[in-house]
Amino acid sequence: MKSTHSSFRFLACSTALSVFLYGCGGGSSDKDTSPNPDQGNRVPTVTINGDNSAQEASVVTLNAAASDSDGSISKYAWSITSGENVTLNNSDQASVDLTLPDVNGDTQITISVTVTDNDGATARDEHTLTIVDNADNQAPTVVINGVAEVDEQSEFNLTATASDNDGEIVSYFWQLISGEGVTLSDTDKAQVKVTTSDIDEDQQVTIAVMVTDDGGAVAMTQHQLLVKASAQTQVFTLKGRVNNGVNSAVNLTVGDKTVTATTNGSGEFSLLVELEESYDSHLVKLSAPSNSVFFPEFNFVSQLLTLGELKQRAGNDNILTEDEYSGVSVGAISTALYYMLDDRENITTTEQLENNYDRIYSGELAINANVLHMLLNGNQGETYPLPTGVTTLGQLFENDLLIREYRERMLDSYPSVTDDNQKLIAETTTYPAINETQQLVFSPGFNLYTIGRHYTLNPDGTGSTVLENGNSGELTWSIDAAGILILEYKVPITLRMGVHHINEKTDAYEEQLLTSAFYTVFQRGNTIEGVLDESIRLVDKNGTVVESNYDNVVYGGFTEKQNAAKLSEADFPGTWFIDDVFTPEGLYFTEPAIANLMADGSASIEVPSVDFYTNNAKWQVTNGNLEIISGSGDNETRFTYYVAHKDEIGYAFVANVTNGGQQFARNGIMVKQQTATGFNENDIVGHFKEVSGQRIHYTGNLIIYDDLIARGDIDWEDKVARVDENGVLQLETYLDRDTLELCRTNDDGRCFLSKQTSYRLFANNTNQYVVMHTESGFGSNGERAYGISKITRIVKQDGINITRFDYGMLNSLRVREHLPNGQKNDYFFSELYISDEESEPRYALSVSYANDEHEVTPFYLDNGIAYFTLAGKSMQMSLEQFERDTLTVCLHEAGATCTDADKKQLDMRWNVAEMPPAQ
Asked: Which of 77, 586, 800, 875 has its CA 20 to 30 A from that of 107?
């Protein structure tokens, strides 16, 4: 009806235009307003102001005086209604510059402007301008003299040199045509003053001058100027300390710059950092020599954040201390952390540093720090002997598995040395003050038997916790003088139930959690890693306390949920890998799932290794957190994911799970699929390093040849590699080796799968593939017998080029030595429990001799060489050459030179490396 009424009114007024023009709401002939699109909106008004005449070849400025009584002007549009060769500049602004042409005789042009208000109504005005022909007056000439490049925050002059052959120059007009960061003064003089401001990056600007002679003729020219941004200086102070570094130099290295300070008698230092802004993106490294009398050459090292991030953490006082960032202090913890980084010398970005942190397990870090502490301080004045072939602590710390094995040997030799975590307290991060209610999530470092939990901590020292098994309870908290976070439960809550051996009696008991002391170790992103030392008691099925107090040590980290980045609904549609969500019945470990989140809010969930699938699911975003809901009513399971951090791989989450009214905490990792194509055959041929697990670090080998035959580790069984129709890499192992060739090309039922390993690609970054690794085992009838999935990375190496051993290669290497008399010796490198008293596996070489004797000896790697003892002799074995089916090694006494007689060529087929008899 509104549209019809407007049209009718316009038609009536048109038929009686000459009589009722003003009565119908019309205007003057050079004004126009559009029909009002909304009866509640008033149309704007506009009037063009400016000269009615101007000289040819000059620049004229016109202004549009526009207003809107019930809103604002949102758009200007200038145009030439009549006339030619007129150039408009800034035609979408309130003021427009017209560059007029040369004309033969005075010429009129018409310019119009249309303005639009914020509700879409428009108004229009026109302006007539006469271009005056200066046929009898010669135009002047002008050039600009001055510099073409200047620095920011400087002042200088530009000069207009102008002349007029038949008169004189009467006016100058300077203006900035393009660019930013430049101010002009004395713009009506022959010499203009130019001031450049503080800018973040180089600016190219254009400055113009127009001169007018006494006959009204004008001339204009432009000048290009590059304004250079100066390198700004970052000035702030680092205050920290160096353990075992008293009265010695401490060096801060940023790119090619090094800043030095000296520690005092307590090892403390104050280091003034004054470096140009261009260094902001560089990572910072602190290093200082040790004062150890046993290893004085050893340097403590700490890999910090970028210079810009350190400056930001320093805050308004420009002083960065240990309570603001733990990396400022350098000691056993930070040094052990530095040596656990891959390719540490070439880490240049924060992203590379964070990727290294992903594989560092707090427990291993604490072990390494203890080793360093023991080595530097000795045992009652006696230094520890280093392994054969190792001459410096730097060499020892090149391999974390070597450190682990060496630590076990030190404890065997010096039983008085204990794993006292108190030694590390002075070097660990103090837990930050809790000044507002915080939602904390504890993620255990290894999630097989440990339990994740959520904490709510209030500033008044009260709080609550929710455990993964559904228990919850109230608590009080405090931070002691050493910076340790102490949690005390008002009523003991059940940690877990199970069978325990108490007083030689096996029975069912319940573990009740009493207190937790969190020793912080280091900080990565939004997570503080450390040790959760729990005080627990055992209660039997009758409720009787069996053991009042014992300790349970858990490594992991606290994450603040409320500091997490929030995502929007647009971030979530797609395919996600969700780690540690489902627990198969009767098993301790949890299984990941694949969730497909549709744009319409529906979802499907698949757990590949337990054959679970449902499309009865939906998803939603609540308060920036993702909720996935499966089932309904009493059978509804609701997963709430809080974003913990974002990086180039995906997003890390921690989940609350509600099932049938019961809420419990569960830790999870989510990775969004960032590739839609999956693998292709060009991707999979080559040599891969596999780094598996988010909480535990293990490196293995995977080799896929051009004919798509694959090997895991070095000598493991052959597998057939293929990429299926979904872009999933499948490695298939068959039971029947006699028909293996047929199985490679024809699965006609004559052979069954023994094992299938699948790699589903979720993210691809410069040959580092983030995948879901699913391993399925099959019985003799071809039915799947078991399955397990995990998140892992496979890193593609250039070609198939293996030149030295690593633990992944040796862990399953079996060597069979054939003797001239037809007998054989078998060597098996593996991870074994060497004695019943050992709680940790150690890398060991197990030897079965032809005379039925058996020997087990530890081995360790240094720089790709395996060291061990055989028959009382120290031996070493190196990898000389690797080919598809052969491995050439050199086995000889440690410290000796490898000769041709020491070299053995091993046939690697069928799971064992055959060493032929010596000729």
From this structure: 77
Question: Token match 């490196």: residue?
Answer: 699
**Mean of per-residue pLDDT scores for the chain:** 80
Examine the pLDDT at 25 and tell me if it is beyond 50. no
693 and 786 fall within a common domain: yes
The answer to whether residues 216 and 123 belong to one domain is no
Same domain, 294 and 417: yes
Which class for 872: exposed (0-12), middle (13-18), buried (19 or more C-beta within 10 A)?
Answer: exposed
Three-state SS annotation for 98-141: EECCCCCCCEEEEEEEEEEECCCCEEEEEEEEEEECCCCCCCCE
User: What is the rounded distance in angstroms from the CA atom of residue 639 to the CA atom of residue 626?
Assistant: 8
Rounded Cα distance between 537 and 540, Å, is 10
Predicted confidence (pLDDT) per residue in 461-518, tens digit: 999 998 877 788 999 999 998 889 999 999 999 887 777 777 777 788 888 999 999 9
DSSP-derived 3-state class of residue 852: coil
Domain-embedded: residue 783: yes
Distance CA 823, CA 527 (A): 57
Residues 6+ apart with CB under 8 A from 25: 13
Alpha helices in 714-812 (DSSP H): 740-745, 807-810
Nearest residue to 270 (alpha-carbon basis) of 306, 305, 237: 237
305 and 156 both lie in a single domain: no
Q: What is the pLDDT of residues 854-910, one digit of tens each?
A: 888 888 777 788 888 887 888 899 999 888 778 888 989 988 999 988 888 877 654
Rounded Cα–Cα distance for residues 253 and 103 (Å): 68
Structural domain of residue 690, as residue ranges? 681-796
Q: What contacts 202, CB < 8 A, 6 or more positions away?
A: 226, 227, 228, 229
Overall number of domains in the chain: 7
Kindly give, in sequence order, each residue whose CB lies less than 8 Å from that of residue 723, ignoring residues fewer than 6 positions away. Answer: 678, 679, 680, 681, 683, 684, 729, 730
CATH of the domain at 770: 2.40.128
Q: Answer yes or no: do 616 and 688 share one domain.
A: no
Q: Specify which residues 557 forms β-bridges with.
A: 443, 529
CATH of the domain at 164: 2.60.40.10
Give the burial string for 532-560 (b: 16+ CB within 10 Å, else e): bbbbbbbbbeeeeebeeeeebebbbbbbb
